[in-house]
Design goal:
Blueprint: H1 3-27, H2 31-34, E1 39-45, E2 50-53, H3 59-75, E3 86-89, E4 101-110, E5 113-123, E6 149-153, E7 156-157, H4 159-168, H5 172-200, H6 206-225, E8 230-239, E9 245-255, E10 260-264, H7 280-295, H8 303-306, E11 309-312, H9 331-334, H10 338-345, E12 362-369, E13 375-377, E14 381-383, H11 410-416, E15 419-427, E16 441-448, E17 454-459, E18 480-483, E19 486-487, E20 494-496, E21 501-505
Parallel strand pairs: 10-11
Antiparallel strand pairs: 1-2, 1-5, 3-4, 3-6, 4-5, 6-7, 8-9, 9-10, 12-13, 12-14, 12-17, 15-16, 16-21, 17-20, 18-19, 18-21
Helix pairs in contact: 1-5, 3-7, 4-5, 7-10
Length: 518
């Protein structure tokens, strides 16, 4: 393909996946999808290679979705697909790492053959079982496990599967509303791709995807070859719900001959008894995000640009979870994966990295009954701390890094469940000092208006440890989680009294460079 033709068709693909993501957000029932953008959409070619992704989404969803298509098609091959079929799974090892993230894959038929697939992954409100917390003792306590199946067959719903899902979740209308949004956005994406093919006289997108993926891979390998060869190391330690201390170690090796980067997590903490273990696909997702964000962030994120990044972890490791360890709160550890990698890269590209951020978003889920005795389950809502400072700019305050997910507005939460927020403001001074200062965390306080007992699933981290500064920058402040003014480290689901009040202070980000006053 000549450059002009390729650019025109590439712009069309980006428009398709972006429109797919916008449609998904507009239709979705859950605030975590509609307001926070906790989702991913992507377009795959007939070989199940990710060609394009929407700019909306989180690294944990986007990059794991990139591998999910091949996993689903290994279970149900293209020869068994028909127009109107839609595949589904929430298998943690097939896709995004825990039961709440459901992946839907829609084959696109054009002239009686599959020319590609539209895929999406979103976080669902409820999947039965324990909930989004870290308290389950094995994966089977964590909720409904959906193997790779057909959600729709030849355009008709799989009634057996629909009935199983509906019977196993607390809020079936919300689940099926969000599934309908995924199915609709996938159908729309397929229609747009067929329209593009007809408009430009294409039988399929194979030549187009070959060109995009080959160019992306070559550009990534060339960027790696410009780095100094060798191995650098990084390490981070942080506390998780219950007070457990986790350490992640990395060795980042640059191979100038192959144009390849290998990340090895040997020496990291062993698996946890809590539900904070991370499957390898999620580890790879955040590892490749760290590399891509400092190496060549303007390059499209697809199968080609991800191919030169190799991630390894020993089996007896918290970030290479094996059945049947619990994984529902995998983001609590997974979102720390970029930090030791960035510390290793700081030794060869100090101007492109940032100091440690607060870490994983603080996830809250609330369950109970309102004053009219109707059950409710809140969509998972997140609160972030400060972002680490950069070489030439301060860190952003109350900003989700590395996930990029937005906070659900408190007005939306107060309208959807009986909750009352008493306080939400920046925790000034919690960012670490430095030549560039780390971002501040925030104070959030709330109570329930139901007049009844309620259940709290909260997953705070870094209540004892501090985000490290970089190049003599000072650490950010640790966080605090208080119930009625008393600090708690519990990572278990808790039964709360009607008038209990929660106060959270999220950590600040680390500073970059020695403070000028020093």
């Amino acid at each position: 393909m000549d450059g002009i033709q390729l650019e025109i068709l590439w712009s069309n693909l980006v428009s398709i996946v972006s429109e797919q993501a916008k449609a998904l957000q507009r239709i979705a029932f859950s605030p975590i999808v509609r307001e926070a953008g906790d989702l991913a959409t992507a377009l795959f070619d007939a070989e199940a290679r990710m060609v394009a992704q929407a700019v909306t989404g989180t690294p944990g969803h986007i990059n794991s979705l990139g591998a999910a298509a091949k996993n689903l098609l290994a279970e149900i091959p293209p020869s068994e697909l028909h127009p109107g079929d839609v595949l589904i799974t929430n298998d943690p090892w097939m896709s995004a790492g825990h039961f709440f993230d459901i992946t839907v894959l829609t084959p696109i038929f054009h002239r009686d053959r599959v020319i590609g697939y539209c895929g999406s992954t979103i976080h669902h409100t409820d999947i039965g079982g324990y909930g989004v917390g870290a308290g389950a003792r094995d994966i089977h306590e964590e909720g409904l496990w959906i193997p790779v199946l057909k959600l729709y067959e030849r355009g008709r719903p799989n009634e057996t599967l629909h009935r199983i899902i509906r019977r196993n979740v607390r809020t079936p209308d919300a689940i099926f509303g969000d599934l309908a949004a995924q199915v609709s956005s996938g159908k729309m994406g397929g229609e747009r791709l067929i329209g593009m093919c007809d408009r430009y006289g294409l039988r399929d997108i194979q030549q187009l995807s070959d060109s995009i993926i080959e160019r992306s891979e070559n550009a990534t390998r060339e960027a790696i070859r410009r780095l100094p060869a060798g191995t650098t190391t990084g390490e981070t330690s942080f506390d998780v719900p219950g007070g457990e201390l986790i350490t992640l170690k990395t060795a980042v090796t640059v191979d100038n001959q192959l144009g390849e980067i290998t990340i090895d997590f040997a020496g990291s903490s062993p698996p946890s008894r809590s539900g904070i273990n991370v499957v390898m696909a999620y580890t790879h997702a955040y590892s490749s995000f760290a590399i891509r964000s400092v190496l060549n962030p303007d390059l499209p994120n697809n199968a080609g640009s991800l191919a030169p990044i190799v991630v390894k972890a020993p089996k007896s490791c918290i970030i290479n979870a094996e059945y049947p360890v619990p994984v529902n709160a995998r983001h609590v550890v997974g979102m720390y994966v970029p930090f030791p990698i960035l510390k290793a890269l700081a030794k060869i590209m100090p101007e492109r990295v940032l100091a440690e951020s607060s870490g994983a978003v603080w996830t809250i889920q609330i369950q109970g009954r309102d004053r009219n005795d109707r059950p409710f389950t809140s969509s998972m809502f997140n609160y972030s701390g400060g972002m680490g400072a950069r070489a030439a700019k301060p860190g952003l305050s109350a900003t989700c890094y590395p996930t990029g997910v937005a906070a659900v507005p408190i007005e939306v939460l107060e309208a959807s469940i009986p909750i009352e927020f008493l306080r939400k403001e920046l925790a000034e001074g919690t960012g670490g000092a430095g030549r560039c200062r780390g971002g501040d965390g925030q104070h959030i306080s709330f109570r329930m208006r139901s007049g009844r007992e309620w259940l709290l699933n909260a997953i705070p981290s870094r209540l004892k440890t501090q985000p490290d500064g970089l190049f003599d920058g000072k650490p950010g402040a640790a966080g605090a989680f208080l119930i009625n003014g008393e600090p708690t480290l519990s990572g278990q689901k808790q039964l709360m009294n009607p008038d209990d009040e929660i106060l959270m202070t999220t950590p600040g980000g680390g500073g970059f460079g020695a403070p000028e006053s020093a």
